[in-house]
Amino acid sequence: MLNTIKRKVPFFHPKVYLFTSNGSYTAFVGSANYTESGFSKNCELAIRTENPIDCKSIKKWFDSLWNKECDVITEELIVSREYELINNPYRPLPKMNKVKRNTEHIEKFNAENIIADLKELRNNNELYSSICTQRKNAIKDLRRCLDVNNGFAGFRGQAVDDFCSEGSLGDLNQHGVPNAMHSAERNGTLKNLCKLLSDETIPIKNRVSRALKMVPGVGKGSITKILTTLYPKKYILINGCSLKYLKLPPQLSSGKCYEEYCEFGQDLLKILDIDNFAVLDGMIRYLTDGDTV
Q1: Is there a single domain that holds both residue 134 and residue 251?
Q2: Contact yes or no for 267/83 (Cβ under 8 A)
Q3: 214 and 147 in a common domain
Q4: Is the entire prediction scored with pTM above 0.85?
Q5: Band of the pLDDT at 138, cuts 50, 70, 90?
Q6: Residues 142-150: contacts with CB within 8 Å, 24+ apart?
Q7: Domain boundaries, position 121
Q8: Domain tally for the chain?
Q9: Model confidence pLDDT, tens digit, residues 159-214
Q10: Same-domain status, 277 and 151
Q11: Within-domain flag for 99
């Protein structure tokens, strides 16, 4: 069993090697890492002691860390760290508080068998393939409504109504969303909103923060539906179904909050080997409603 130390201090760096045999102890305390270089190449310094009082004191210190200050290294924690390293290869190891937050969320799912239910559905090849096909077609239809290939020029009139009523990624025909979009369409704001959300040169947290303030009446459901339509492998869908099932906080208050949702979602996609967020939403719909739309 492996544990990792919680990051309560800026940098945790002690090296202690404690051996026991037939009731006696030997401890080495020094600078060497447990590597080939640390033991055979570098200039290092270590002190060896067989004093039972000192060794037992070291063991007590270690046991206290292990039992009270460590987190178990789970499959989900490893996946979280691997994902961040793969996507940020030139940055240092990810901040443990962010990884821990995502991992705690995933472990909560484990406790409630949510991941087990999603894995069971994922392993049903026929049903999973059907959901993937349905979602692929839905994304194609929604991109046509947005008129992505023409810079959103045709996202107006009936296309707006069709985008709102296509229910695969959330039905927007409530709370005055279609009227708000039509109003924004007439003054050019709707097209600007879509261009902003599609601009991958701008960090996603900045795009979403600006978008949330851009068009009155067009909120998280509409914004994330556009994002998931544009980039289904990158951006998580936030609607009533996903919020409830994934147990996310109901208020998308900022772009930073959405960025964290996406980081958590990417961990989930990787653990479950799911193609994209549109498919994940379809699986959630199936598990909650018995349908993918």
Answers
A1: yes
A2: yes
A3: yes
A4: no
A5: very high
A6: 142/166, 142/168, 142/169, 142/225, 142/229, 143/229, 143/230, 146/194, 146/226, 146/229, 146/230, 148/198, 148/230
A7: 113-289
A8: 2
A9: 999 999 998 888 898 778 999 999 999 999 999 999 999 999 999 999 999 999 99
A10: yes
A11: no
